[in-house]
């Protein structure tokens, strides 16, 4: 890992944090708010690749754990990660890694492939982790936790599509994604 990798990871961690400036949408039937931050996780994985994208999301989770108010609504702290919505946040590094892995292994990145990568990592991985964690922490049946998660799907589908369009355009016009210092594609 070189300085350029660390800089890009920090930059995307900042993007995820900046997306936390948008106020959360609180649902009356769920303790988990709807936020814009998963868009940043999808962009990090899509643009930086598996390791750097996952690393940037891991950096955000670590900063949240130590109290940085990076989450939507100015929230942060270990208590947030231990709350019912913590499973969604804890899944961010794995989600970015999965998205980056899929994008890295695509022969050519198209919007459709990027949407599939974002849906796989940014929706399935995050929701699977979030639902299991929510069910466990709140002592709810899995079906009840899964039903409460359905309200996130329309927004997540929109975020996956937006991230796909943005990342494909950036990857088409940027010399740096997925290359190491010798210019070899990862």
UniProtKB/TrEMBL annotation:
Predominant subcellular localization, coarse grouping: membrane
InterPro entries the record matches: BioY
Pfam families hit by this protein: BioY
Subcellular location: Cell membrane
GO cellular component: plasma membrane
Ranges that cross the membrane: 7-26, 57-74, 80-103, 115-138
Protein keywords: Cell membrane, Membrane, Transmembrane, Transmembrane helix, Transport
GO molecular function, one term: biotin transmembrane transporter activity
Membrane topology value: Multi-pass membrane protein
Family: Belongs to the BioY family.
UniProt protein name: Biotin transporter
Organism of derivation: Salicibibacter cibi
